Amino acid sequence: MSDVTFSSADLTTFTRLDELGLEVVGQHLLPDRAVLACRVVDPDEWCRRCGCQGVPRDTVTRRLAHEPFGWRPTVLVVRLRRYRCTECGHVWRQDMTKAAAARAKISRGGLRWALVGLVCQHLSVARIAEALAVSWHTANAAVLAEGRRVLINDPTRFDGVRVIGVDEHVVRHEALLFRMEVRDLHRFAVAAAG
Ligand SMILES: [Zn+2]
What we know:
Layout: H1 11-14, E1 22-30, E2 33-40, E3 54-69, E4 72-85, E5 91-93, H2 108-119, H3 125-132, H4 136-152, E6 164-172, E7 177-184, E8 190-193
Parallel strand pairs: 2-4
Antiparallel strand pairs: 1-2, 3-4, 4-5, 6-7, 7-8
Helix pairs in contact: 2-4, 3-4
The chain binds zinc ion.
Zinc ion binds next to loops.
């Protein structure tokens, strides 16, 4: 550790929001949650209809659940610019699909955290929802969709697999439902679930 070179403390990289195209510009820390004010780094000033340059018109905000740090939910309040085209009058919002899908309530970093928590740490959906400060249904739907996108729909998921294990466990005791996962034991991957 004595040879480690430290860089300046930086909340944006600590929370991995740089990977999502965001920059943290403010924080509001509460005992039960951390709220981070963010801005979208990349400008988006070219009209999607006619290609002419737009001018900033106003700003709107969007709230997203992000991965928790120290089990304290992290909420992002992202400020987005709205532009108006100088030629055709079209109005659009700054693109932030790198940070979250359209209409999503959870950031891409939050989804990744939730999926790892479910698959690798065997967290319940209720625990994930609590850590993200979202409803059970929001967490469940988002994690299922992300799991399908990342794990099940990946045609290369068997590439490099050497050992496959079958794990069967009770999902809901009261209904005696069993879930079976076929899992690559050497990597983070669920090959199939049913
Ligand atoms: Zn235009």
